[in-house]
Structures are given as C-alpha cells and as structure tokens.
Structure to design on (427 residues):
C-alpha cells in the first residue's frame, strides 16, 4: 500500500483528529502542508505533524498557487466556509475529505456533487458514525438479509447537557443566523445520514418535522437571574452555570477557550473565571442569544414505503443514541453508548411461533481496532478506510459515492422547511 500525502485545511479540533492518523500510522499517511488562519494553531499543528515552514500557509489561495501535489485535502474548516473552500479545492483537481455538514444550502450541495463528477475527484464526507464498529455491524447484518426488508426505523439522539450548552447554547453553533447550520444540520446530520445509509436500497421521499427552542429562552430564566452567571444569585444551583460546566466539568476545552488564543495547557483556572465575566461563554443560558432548536422530531417516508422517525433532544442527563429497526424477518435494537445491540429473528420452525435473540457486543472491536476512540472509534476508522480506498481498495461498506452521502442532508433541509412552513415536504 502506498503511503499517502494529505494537506490539512483548518487545523482546529476536527482537522487535528483526522491528521492525527499520520502520527498513529506514519507508514500510511503524512501531512505535507497546512493552511490555517490562526498563527497559534498553524504553529502548533505544523510542529505536531513536522510540516516544513515553507508548506505552512495562512491562506488557501496562497497554497493553491504553489500547486503542491497531494493525495487528498482534509477540509475541516467551519460550516459556513465549506462551500467556497471546497469549490476551490475541487477546481484545483484535489480529492477531498470534507467535514459535515457539507453546506446549509441545497443548491450548493448539488453544485458540489456536480463539481466532484465533472472534475472526477473523490469527495468523501466525515459521516464518522458510519465507520464505527457499532453501525458497521448493523449495516452488515441488514445487508446479509438477517432482518429481511426494512419496514420501520426509530432513532433518538440525546445530547448530554454539558455538551449541548458548550456547543449549542453558548458555543459556536448556537445560532443558525451566524453559523449557517441549525441543530439538525450541525449535529443530527449524522443520524439522518445513518438512516439513509442503513436503508439505502431505497431513497427518502417525504418528510415532516416539528421542533422549537423553548427551553433556552428568556421567559424561562429564574427570577433575579443576571446577564452573566458569575454574579447570579442562582449560580450555585443552576443546571447551566457557566462556572460549573465550563470551568469545573470543562467538557470541550478546545472550543470553550479557543478565543483566548493561548495554548490550552497554559490557561489557569483564574484566567478562565475572569474570562467568563465578559465572554459569551459566561452568559446566562436563557439569554445567550442563541436561536437554534433545542428539540425536534422528524418523520420520513421512503420510496419503497418504509418509514423512519427520529427525535433529537438537546440537554439530557446522559448522552445516548438509540436505534430500533424492524424488518420483515426480525429486528435490531440497541444504544450506541452500550457498545452492544440485540438482533431478533422470527422463529416459525416446526410448532414454534417466537423469536431468537442474539446480543452483538462490539466493545472489544471499538477498543481493539481503533487507535483512538473519538466518535465510537469513527474518527480513526474513517482515516483507516479512506487511506485504503484511495489506494484502490473498494471493500469499505461505509465509503459511498457522494450521491449516496447527500441524502441525509436533503432530509435535513426538507425537515427544516417542513417545521418552518408547517407542511409535508417532498424531496
Ligand atoms: N464529524 C463530526 O462529528 C464533527 C464534530 C464536530 C464538528 N464538526 C464539524 O467540523 C468542522 C470544524 O469544526 P471544529 O470544531 O474543528 O472547528 P475549529 O474552529 O476548531 O476548527 C476550524 C479551524 O479552521 C480555521 N479556519 C477558519 N477559516 C479558515 C480559512 N479561511 N483558512 C484556513 N483555516 C481557517 C480556524 O482558525 C480553526 O482553527 C465544522 O464544520 C464542524 O461543524 C464535525
């Protein structure tokens, strides 16, 4: 297998999760250039991946002008510049691994699909859950016909309260108006992709959806709540206290403290507490200026008559992704966090009228196969499979053409239209 060369565009949290594969498997991947607007992150990532100074860029156009050869570009910039950067990268003839969400606009999505075909470049999307041992095993069981033809699918996504507050109440995805993505696109496009990929003997046809932001709204702030948490009389007991969540729990330091523009391990607790007195991460959760929904449901009908329903909840006591698929011969049911699921098969042999049950435990696969376990092993596995795919190995069931990778996004756009305009939307 040939060792591949990749270029990293956007050396933030996600970009480095993928580029770390070059440290995990140095005989398979090398990062040969980095494009990053932040001086600090360009230096940190440049040093981490041993990229020569001459191949560290602050501007995409500057990199493109140099015509540096590589096997693919990792585009891990933020949502709102995915389209413009991806057009430039594909026009220059590079294969690309693009972070989800691809884009918030249907015309742009279809344009990227067209451009990938026209330029004959491979465009892969970071739908990392497809690559986890958990969902891959489910997909294999469906493909083997074990549960027969899919009739219905039920999926839930419960986003843990500290994660939700850090990313979607005070964080950089809190506002559709500024980030470009609503909650469904920013978070649940993974789940929409799973639904469409697992059921890809057919395609989604009709969508309806309801959702709102009703918890994190000014009307729910307790009496006497102040603009910032640090001097609020409720700070000791409030579930959404900035000091409790961001300083004590600190679930996502790479995003909470990013604007401080200092190496994370040099930031003291005192500096964090001071920062929260005036920064958006210190704002009252009920008045943080966010506009995205904090709960939403989606119903989908597919061309073959099968159906799917999905519920997302922002702010739960524990993170959880539930799945229950009913087919003509049996069922699959489980929770991603348990690292196991049940396969039930109807048993109508002899006098019997019941079912057999088997528990599929993937915990050993998650921890044994993955060099690092972000997203249930998906962050590592996507790179492992991509490197092989770009070397000509087409055996991955998770890697599909861009045509198959956009259906989940089309469902999200339809769901947002349905919810906002109170109608059933045809895809
Ligand atoms: N696959 C997943 O499960 C998953 C999880 C979280 C986030 N994401 C997505 O990944 C993407 C990146 O998120 P993140 O949390 O890593 O963000 P981040 O802010 O940590 O990283 C983005 C980086 O891009 C840099 N950047 C911005 N504009 C640039 C430009 N013009 N040229 C070069 N660099 C530029 C920023 O300075 C930053 O370092 C987003 O689209 C996000 O929605 C995906």
């Amino acid at each position: 297998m040939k060792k591949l060369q990749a270029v990293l565009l956007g050396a933030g949290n996600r970009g480095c999760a993928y580029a770390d594969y070059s440290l995990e498997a140095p005989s398979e991947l090398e990062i040969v250039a980095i494009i990053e607007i932040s001086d600090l992150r360009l230096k940190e990532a440049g040093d981490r991946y041993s990229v020569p100074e001459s191949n560290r860029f602050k501007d995409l156009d500057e990199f493109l002008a140099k015509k540096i050869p590589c096997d693919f570009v990792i585009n891990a910039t933020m949502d709102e510049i995915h389209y413009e950067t991806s057009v430039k990268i594909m026009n220059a003839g590079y294969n690309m691994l693009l972070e989800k969400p691809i884009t918030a606009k249907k015309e742009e999505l279809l344009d990227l699909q067209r451009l990938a075909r026209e330029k004959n470049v491979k465009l892969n999307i970071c739908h990392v859950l497809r690559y986890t041992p958990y969902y891959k095993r489910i997909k294999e069981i469906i493909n083997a016909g074990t549960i027969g033809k899919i009739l219905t699918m039920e999926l839930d996504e419960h986003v843990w309260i500290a994660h939700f507050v850090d990313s979607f109440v005070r964080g950089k995805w809190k506002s559709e108006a500024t980030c470009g993505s609503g909650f469904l696109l920013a978070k649940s496009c993974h789940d929409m992709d799973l639904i469409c990929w697992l059921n890809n003997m057919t395609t989604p046809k009709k969508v309806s959806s309801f959702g709102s932001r009703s918890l994190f709204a000014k009307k729910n702030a307790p009496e006497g709540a102040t603009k910032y948490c640090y001097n609020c009389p409720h700070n000791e007991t409030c579930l959404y206290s900035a000091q409790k969540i961001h300083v004590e729990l600190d679930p996502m330091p790479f995003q909470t403290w990013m604007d401080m523009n200092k190496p994370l391990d040099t930031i003291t607790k005192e500096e964090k507490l001071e920062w929260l007195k005036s920064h958006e991460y210190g704002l009252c959760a009920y008045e943080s200026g966010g506009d995205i929904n904090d709960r939403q449901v989606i119903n989908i009908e597919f061309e073959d008559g099968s159906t799917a329903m999905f519920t997302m909840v922002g702010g739960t006591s524990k993170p959880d992704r539930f799945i229950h698929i009913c087919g003509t011969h049996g069922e699959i049911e489980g929770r991603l966090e348990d690292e196991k699921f049940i396969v039930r098969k109807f048993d109508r042999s002899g006098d019997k009228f019941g079912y057999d049950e088997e528990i599929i435990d993937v915990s050993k696969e998650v921890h044994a196969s993955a060099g690092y376990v972000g997203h249930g092993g998906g962050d590592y596995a996507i790179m492992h499979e991509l490197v092989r795919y770009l070397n000509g190995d087409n055996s991955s069931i998770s890697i599909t053409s861009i045509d198959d990778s956009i259906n989940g996004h089309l469902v999200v756009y339809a769901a947002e239209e349905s919810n906002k305009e109170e109608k059933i939307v045809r895809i």
The mean pLDDT is 95. The first helix runs from residue 13 to 19. The chain has 18 helices and 15 strands. Residues 101 and 286 are 26 Å apart (CA to CA).
